[in-house]
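seq as requested:
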Amino acid sequence: MKKLLTILILTVGFTVTTQGQRTDKAKHEKLTIEQKTELAVKKLTLQLDLTRAQQDQVKPLIAEQVAERHKMHSKRKAMKKSGNKPTANERYAMKSKVLDKQIAYKTKMKRILDKQQYERFEKMTARKMKRHKKKASHKKFRKTKHKEKH
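struct tokens:
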């Protein structure tokens, strides 16, 4: 009986602490677009050994990308709140627009970076995409599990 009670208390305690950690994330203040841009440029500088001139060329590209991502996030959030879902044509148009922007970004980066830096940039991008897809598939799996429970 004592063992059962101890296990029950530990389980409840663990559950409460993990739930508390999740809410802490929401309490953090959001970074501004300029702050996010600055951090992204610094990360790229460290990873690719960018020169000052390259940093100056990359900064507006990243600022545009961060601003666009922020705008799309707000748009998706508003659509989710309103309960509207995009039609197949709208989804196609959005995806096409995103891919066009990625192609343009990649082309501009290729002009700015030297050959060695661009190769590292490509590897970094591929790793990020792989992690992103893995994370997205994990979320999808978690959502289907959650729906099955309810």
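The chain has a mean pLDDT of 83.
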